[in-house]
Design brief:
The complex is a heterodimer of chains A (165) and B (153).
Chain A: H1 9-41, E1 44-45, E2 50-54, E3 63-72, E4 77-88, E5 94-97, E6 109-110, E7 120-121, E8 128-129, E9 147-153, E10 156-163
Parallel strand pairs in A: 1-3
Antiparallel strand pairs in A: 2-10, 3-4, 4-5, 6-7, 7-8, 9-10
Chain B: H1 5-13, E1 20-28, H2 33-56, E2 61-63, E3 67-70, H3 74-88, E4 95-100, H4 104-107, E5 115-118, H5 130-152
Parallel strand pairs in B: 1-2, 1-3, 1-4, 4-5
The chains are: A alpha+beta (165), B alpha/beta (153).
Protein name (chain B): DUF2487 domain-containing protein
InterPro entries (chain B): DUF2487 (IPR019615)
Pfam families (chain B): DUF2487 (PF10673)
Chain lengths: 165, 153
């Protein structure tokens, strides 16, 4: 039988103090980390502006950005994924379009059709929209893609409600 | 379209555009504790994929209620699944996709009244982890392409 290991007074103090020190350090650092990343990860309620992207990331080419919001109805509170196509227009305005096809609600893609590389394309029924989100006549959609409200604060792009046009 | 009142009301009006049915096919296991837990994970993973597909193709796909069965006896379930599919064909669906991670369906793939979308899922994991998320995103892209291709043909 091996003897049970004994912990010396010095070891015991060492363990305790290291543990305690680590705990205190974590206590100090955790709120700072939270503070640093909070605006990006905080899910927000519908209708509020949400930070979605760094303005630096934007270009003339529409890019897809995703974020989450909390949606509450009578029974459930659920997280809903939202998406936007965002780009800088020729007059340096930031344009953020909803990807939800106004025909029956599929998700449209930028430049997904080889024949129309400069349009949004709906894979379900070949609906098309020009870069500014206006539906191309003769294709199934009857309204332009909704446009998100935008605002820029401290280099971050915030998106609000998608407004039907 | 989800199998929910609001979506189905729209489906009934717009049938001309909505011609595809997507059925999650999900095994349930009870034989051991491990299998119970892992079957829960399979179910969540399947539903996650199905939700992504539904969101992408909302205007053309109807997401049917899931088809559940006990994992021990797939052989006998084949006919029940086919009956289930046939019942839906009273509505004008030209394309029927069956979505499952269960390998046993591959053996009877040719005898099913729908197109089987099968790929090895994950045995176990955490749906919130970035690893699982990127796996799901990649695989979902594949499925989306398969569905688009079958519409073209």
């Amino acid at each position: 039988m091996s003897e049970p290991k004994k912990v010396s007074r010095r070891q015991f103090l060492n363990y305790t103090l290291t543990g305690l020190g680590g705990f205190m350090a974590a206590g100090m650092v955790a709120p700072m980390v939270r503070f640093a990343i909070d605006p990006v990860f905080k899910p927000s309620a519908a209708g509020e502006f949400v930070s979605v992207a760094d303005v630096e990331e934007l270009s003339n080419e529409p890019q897809r950005f995703e974020w989450e919001i909390e949606q509450v109805d009578a029974w459930y509170e659920s997280k809903v994924q939202k998406t936007a196509w965002v780009y800088r227009s020729e007059n340096d305005e930031i344009v953020a379009l909803s990807p939800v096809c106004t025909h029956l609600g599929c998700t449209v893609d930028w430049a997904a059709s080889e024949e129309y590389p400069n349009q949004f394309f709906c894979p379900c029924h070949a609906g098309r929209y020009t870069k500014d989100g206006v539906n191309v006549p003769g294709t199934p959609p009857t309204a332009p893609l909704p446009k998100y409200e935008t605002k820029v604060e401290e280099g971050m792009l915030y998106l609000g409600e998608a407004i039907a046009r | 379209m989800k199998w929910m009142k609001k979506d189905l009301e729209q489906f009934v009006e717009e049938k001309a555009y909505i011609d595809t049915l997507f059925i999650p096919v999900i095994p349930v296991a009870t034989s051991s504790d491990d299998k119970v837990v892992s079957s829960g994970f399979q179910l969540e993973l399947n539903e996650l994929f199905s939700r992504i597909i539904e969101e992408q193709f909302k205007g053309r796909i109807v997401l049917a209620p899931s088809f559940y069965y006990m994992d021990e006896k797939v052989e006998g379930e084949k006919d029940r699944l086919n009956e289930w599919i046939d019942a839906f064909s009273r509505q004008p669906f030209n394309h029927v996709f069956l979505f499952s991670f269960d390998r046993s369906w591959r053996k009877v793939e040719g005898e099913l009244n729908g197109e089987l979308l099968w790929f090895p899922g994950l045995r176990n994991g955490d749906l919130q982890s970035t690893e699982t998320q990127s796996f799901v995103k990649e695989q979902a892209k594949e499925i989306i392409e398969i569905i688009k291709d079958s519409w073209k043909s």
